[in-house]
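P.,

For your records, the input lines for the assembly:
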Amino acid sequence: MSDASAFSFRAPTDESPLVRRALIGVAVLGLGLLVGAPLVAVFAEALKQGWLAALKSLGNRDALSAIWLTLTIAAISVPLNAVFGIAAAWLITRFDFRGKAFLITLIDLPFSVSPVVAGLCIVLMFGANSLLGGWLVAQGFPIVFALPGIVLATVFITFPFIARELIPVMIEQGRAEEEAALTLGAGGWHLFRTVTLPNIRWALLYGVLLCNARAMGEFGAVAVVSGKIRGQTATMPITIEMLYNEYLSVAAFSLAAVLTLLALVTLLAKTVLERRHADQIAATHRH
Amino acid sequence: MGRPLYQRSPMPGLGLSAGITLTMLSIVVLLPVGALLAKGVSFGPGNLWDVVNRERVWSALFLSFRLSFFAAIFNLVFGTLLAWVLVRYRFAGRRLLDAAVDLPFALPTAVAGIALTALYAPNGVLGGLAQQIGWKIAYTQTGILIALVFVGLPFVARTVQPVVEEIEREVEEASATLGASRLTTLRRVILPMLAPAALTGFALALARAVGEYGSVIFIAGNIPLKTEIAPLLIVIQLEEFNYDAAAAIGIAMLTISFAMLLAINLIQIWSRRRIGYV
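Structure tokens returned:
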């Protein structure tokens, strides 16, 4: 490729060293300002009054309940989405039927809906003054301003994540292996566990990672459906907002730092997956 | 149209996978979106229009769309540059830079929002510097623009990157042999190849920015007619339990989103016809 730099001669398809250096400089500076600076700011603000203050604010009862709630929501929504993603990818890649493109469009729909509008939709469908929501409240099972609503909002926002990772991989792998297993007499579950799952596990893990990061960090949709009840429906991002608006900067940024660490771990795991299992992850992510 | 509705297949699990897919799709997405549209219908088109046709709503919709457009334009240029630098050049820290491009996808929007505000507020590091030259960033439209650039950053870079990887050096060599300068090759040969993917990324970044809420509200200042974004108006209406008005603004935003989804698909069809891949 661009091994020309080893010689003092420049290939006609290379930019001059000056242009090259300028472009790299712009990229580094731009990303540094846009991405690096906010990252540093989170930790700097969290540690403004030292480690002790930061840790103490995380030990606060509201903070702990927010962390617990966020973990609970991710623990429910991510598996739900994994089940959906596998089912949808199986349906789309293993069968031929009319309207497939339309089905894919519907699955992608949440990508183009504002999180706030997504929350609004769930409030209108399941809120106490809707037909269904009113009945559910009367049965003692409220959805909006309670855990089920937050889970619904989170699943809505992350809906396409896992399906989108699995579909290209399963198209690429084709049906031959599964058809061979079928002729050899394998049953449905046996076939899925021994043939399909080993082929899609890295793509599935990749999708789960992205889905989980988004599920734990979702703000707009959850802000609308949660009712922001402290200690009950305030997730980590919502608690960050409340603390920030109360000028409790250290507490807000300490909680934010925890989520930032999660984002960094996610990125690291994602990079490792991309490097080690590039051939088993969706084609669009290969680089 | 002669194609049958469903082609028989020996593959197991049709009923189960179709059942799970359609049930979840209905409960999570279709019914709630349907509830919004139903609310709009029962409220009536005249009333819908009355809600949207107010100065505060228009100015919020226009602000969201205009700033999202500018942010997406910035990302179109910067994202293409990033893709080029990350694929073509080898330098220390390239892998770190590559990973950093994805941070806006992974970082929760509320975290990004307060971090950007801390940086660009008058008492923040960068905001303080800007203030010395009389430039206010946080709590102005510039601040909103920065937040929208942040959330849209990965889209163009990530859609263009694989295309840069696939460019064959021979094409550039041919162009150079025929006497084209590097700049001419870039303009006439390389950029046209990148354009479809870059445009797709642009549309994705635009769509994301128009609906963005979490990273914007902290830095925006939220002054009506000046720095108030459209999603915030919905939240305000909901806090006042004004569901009809919230639904009206929601439908207006949904319409904009669908128009953009349509545009993305048209761009993809157009570029596939022109180049053969995206």
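Two observations worth noting. Chain B touches chain A through 106 residues (CB under 8 Å). Chain B has 13 helices and one strand.

Regards
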